Amino acid sequence: MARFETDDEARRLGDALAALRRARGLSQAEAGARLGMTSQGWGLYEAGKRPGLFRPDVQRRMTAALASTPEALQALAAGADAPEGEAGLPGVRSDAAVWEGPPPAARQRLQLSTDELAPWAASGVILEYAPGQWPRRDQGCVIETADGRRLVRLFERAEADLLVLRGGPGGLQAEERLPRAEARRVAAVVARIET
Question: Is the pTM value of this prediction over 0.70?
Answer without folding.
Answer: no
